[in-house]
Amino acid sequence: MTKPVQRIARFISALVVSSAVLSSAAMAADDAIAQGKKIAEDRKKGNCLGCHAMGDGVMPGNIGPPLIAMKARYPDKAKLRAQIWDATAANPHTPMPPFGKHGALSDKEIDLITEYVYSL
Amino acid sequence: MRKYLSVLLAASVSLSAGSVTAGNTQDVAELKEYFMKKFPGVEMEALKDGAYALDESLYMQFENIEEFPPWEDFAAKGEEIYNTPFANGKTFASCFGDDVTKIRAKYPHWDSATKKVVTLEGDINKCLTDNGEKPLKGKRGSLAHVSAYIALQARGQKINVVVPDEPEAIAAYEAGKKFFYAKRGQLNLSCADCHVYQAGMNVRSELLSPTVGHVSHFPVWRRKWELADKKNNDGFGTIQRRYDGCNKQVRAKPFKNQGEEYRNLEFFHTSLSNGLEWNGPAYRK
User: Fold this and answer.
1) Residue B9: pLDDT over 70
2) Is residue B79 packed enough to be buried (19+ CB in 10 Å), middle (13-18) or exposed (0-12)?
3) On chain B, which terminus has fewer CB atoms closer than 10 Å, C or N?
4) Which domain holds residue A36?
5) According to the CATH classification, is domain B25-284 in 1.20.810.10?
6) How many structural domains compose chain A?
7) Phi, psi (deg, nearest 5) at residue A86
8) pLDDT > 90 in chain B, percent
């Protein structure tokens, strides 16, 4: 191979590798959202539909606000995570369970739920 | 895996800053006013039908079921137990008096001699043990059947729990009130969270009932309990059976049957329906 061809070949393989990395990162993100959706909808886990209209969940409760336009309401994802972790910090009288503080969900589960809810 | 946690946060949230007066009229009056504002168009007396009073289609289904109530045969079993003499020849009437219609409305009450709250189910069993018979165990089955028969005889009478002007009685009432308003369990919910602040709202598809009118229809026949009892399809349960369920639902450890916590709670809780009619037993989902 000539040097320019070598360089092009290297460039193309770098592109292929990086796009594979990028698309696997994108897939991982989608995967986290899908996993988070499952945990959020699980009655024994997040059970978010108990109180919130959320995504395509059927017969949601109406005690909490519907979970839509989340990026507008919580531009900072960490603040959304904190609310899920312990809603009593913002409002001590809230009926929302403190999922993290009371150990109802693991840190990993809360991470995944946050990914899902943030995407709504 | 659910973990039962004992009471985590005992901070009580009270609707009124006022203290208890003899007759505890202030708490009841405030809650009644609160619910009448929350549910315009709903009659106060209708609250004895709980969540069904808040939704027309639910009420129609409830009316249909109560035409041929699923609990009738079991209430009849209760009548049979009530009328069967003990081994020593005495009967329940020896304890409760000859007029069975007068029993339900006396409970729960404060007993100034023993200085504790006395409940109907507690005294049903006291009558048995005082006469050398075995008590009816638990919060369901035969105990609930006898309670159901007694409730049926008193339908239409007014609920009137009195808090006498004695310090221990007032303390018991206040303890029941504190329990009612305290957040508990892993899910951090109080009775008031669902049945005062969120009454009329939906948890998933379930409509939350207001606490005024709660106790009137006990012992309750729950469809859920009926289905869970594979052996007898017996849906009956006492008010303290429901307290157990509520505690478990918020992942809190239930309290002892006829223990001080539940008796004081029943004392406070029943008084919140003062002025409404006893209308037990009744069907609920």
Assistant:
1) no
2) middle
3) N
4) 3-118
5) no
6) 1
7) -155, 95
8) 91
Per-residue pLDDT of B248-263, as tens digits, reads 999 999 999 999 999 9
CA–CA gap between residue B248 and residue B193 (Å, rounded): 15
Q: How far is A102 from chain B (nearest CA, A)?
A: 6
Task: List A residues 8-67 in contact with B (Cβ-Cβ < 8 A).
Answer: 44, 49-51, 59-63
Q: Nearest CA of chain A to the CA of B1: how many Å? A: 8
Please say if the pLDDT value at position B7 is more than 60: no
CB–CB contact B203 A44 (8 Å):
no
Question: CB pairs below 8 Å between A and B: how many?
Answer: 43
Interface test with B, best of A41, A45, A63, A84 (most B CBs within 10 A): A63
pLDDT value for A18: 63
Residue the block writes with tokens 């239409």: B156
CATH number for the domain including A86? 1.10.760.10
- Mean of pLDDT values over A91-108: 98
The answer to whether the beta carbons of residues B148 and B280 sit under 8 Å apart is yes
**What pLDDT band is residue B17 in, cutting at 50, 70 and 90?**
very low
Q: Which two tokens stand for residue B250?
A: 């918020």
Across the interface, whether the CB atoms of B251 and A59 are under 8 A apart is answered: no
Q: Is B246 a catalytic residue?
A: yes
- Helix, strand, or coil here: B272? coil
Partners of residue B194 in chain A, C-beta under 8 Å = 95
Indicate the helix (H) or strand (E) that contains B145: helix B141-153
Q: Say if residues B283 and B59 touch (Cβ distance below 8 Å).
A: no
Task: Fill in the amino acid letter for A13.
Answer: S
Hey, are the CB atoms on A93 and B13 less than 8 Å from each other?
A: yes
Question: Can you give the residue ranges of every domain in chain B?
Answer: 25-284
- Residue A36: both structure tokens together: 């988070």
Output the pLDDT for position A27: 77
B134 Cβ under 8 Å from any chain A Cβ: no
Q: What is the ipTM of this complex?
A: 0.86
Q: Taking all residues of chain B, what is their mean pLDDT, rounded to a whole number?
A: 93
Bond from prior residue into B219 cis (ω within 30 degrees of 0): yes
